[in-house]
């Protein structure tokens, strides 16, 4: 049996290290792109993540390829939260847990990239999977009667995106987290049935939500 050269990481070890680096870059990208928009330099992301530019470009051929990968990673994290929600016996507990998990992950923080990068087939496939999971979470809560009847899956998606934004510069992080927790509690109460008053206007459209990702 051929032995591995001493000091040389195994294929599995390299894959684990690459994933750790990807997740570090994803966390940094959420901060950088939420603050600076899609035009932010990758150097700023790499610096915040503590990853060398050389290692990034050895793994990804271009800024676009890196951003496409980060979008997939972010959606996959939300998928894990969705599966936990569907495993919950109580539909409202599952929905609330999903929203809180996605807000904690800042699952919508890469929204500034919408329309700025080409979407790949993998991105579209992973998005469709997540959309189906969220639709199922919301449907369970509707059938259960715990989610107000006029709230839709897209309302939930937009809500998560709004709470994924970075707080303004100069705000104490602890205070910002406290305010976010209060506002999220208010929003969750507003989602519960029957609702104090009807929601204004039409429900958000999927065409608008998804259409943002077409390159402008």
What is the CATH-assigned architecture of the domain at 71-211? Orthogonal Bundle
**What gross morphology would you assign?**
globular
Number of DSSP helices?
Answer: 9
The percentage helix is: 55-70%
Strand content: under 5%
Number of strands: 0
Major sheet details: none
End-to-end distance, in Å? 55 Å
Order of helices and strands: HHHHHHHHH
**Regions with little confidence, pLDDT below 50 for 5+ residues:** none
The CATH class label of the domain at 71-211 is Mainly Alpha
Topology-level CATH name of the domain at 71-211: Tetracycline Repressor, domain 2
Instruction: Classify the oligomer.
Output: single chain
Counting helices, strands and paired strands, the structural category is: mainly alpha
User: For the CA atoms, what is the radius of gyration?
Assistant: 19 Å
Mean pLDDT: 87
